[in-house]
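tokens incoming
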């Protein structure tokens, strides 16, 4: 590998390390104040999509001509699942209370049995049963999945690449192809990647604790 290529790789590794470990998801609220990440998955009805593998539930609040109500749409991949084949319960966690919402099939969706009162600011957790399998879906599960993905990316991609570049530049310095400042840059990039892995692992553990805390509320 040429010195020019290694320098380009070192610069790229530094950018990747900062980008993957340094940014936090910026959150915004929609017109009703629902906390949501900009990168959240959207369903075909404009609601938030919660997934467990191919199985997905789209969570919407419908309020056109009726009091605000939860409507759930179930999917297997991109294929809709008949609401009669799905059972769902929702735990709505507000600052001052927790609400339990039951759902019943109606038309092509599952309809919640209570009005969604203002403020529309809360944490949602679903217990969904389909085809004999029960799943817990919610924001905490999404955070855990994203944190796990971040940890795996550092373990399998970023750190191995940083180690490879560091070794090559160190050997190149020994052969007179690189200066000592480039060796220091390679060391710094590798150290930053390892620190970011530790931070990502901590974020994953916090996400797991949140999931365990929430799932422990189901009887």
């Amino acid at each position: 590998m040429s010195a020019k290529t290694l320098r380009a790789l070192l610069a790229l590794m530094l950018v990747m390390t900062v980008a993957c470990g340094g940014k936090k998801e910026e959150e915004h609220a929609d017109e009703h104040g629902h906390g949501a990440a900009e990168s959240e998955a959207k369903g075909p009805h404009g609601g938030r999509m919660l997934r467990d593998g191919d199985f997905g539930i789209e969570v919407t609040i419908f309020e056109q001509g009726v009091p605000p109500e939860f409507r759930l749409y179930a999917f297997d991949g991109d294929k809709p699942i008949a609401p009669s084949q799905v059972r769902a319960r929702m735990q709505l966690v507000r600052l001052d209370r927790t609400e339990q919402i039951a759902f019943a099939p109606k038309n092509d969706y599952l309809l919640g049995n209570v009005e969604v009162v203002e403020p529309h600011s809360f944490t949602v957790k679903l217990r969904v049963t389909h085809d004999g399998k029960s799943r817990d879906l919610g924001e905490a599960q999404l955070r855990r999945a994203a944190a796990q993905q971040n940890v795996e990316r550092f373990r399998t991609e970023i750190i191995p690449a940083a180690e490879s570049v560091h070794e090559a530049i160190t050997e190149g310095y020994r052969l007179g192809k690189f200066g000592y400042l480039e060796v220091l840059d390679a060391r710094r990039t590798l150290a930053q990647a390892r620190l970011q892995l530790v931070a990502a692992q901590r974020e994953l553990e916090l996400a797991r604790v949140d999931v365990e805390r929430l799932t422990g509320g189901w009887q």
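note: The radius of gyration is 23 Å.
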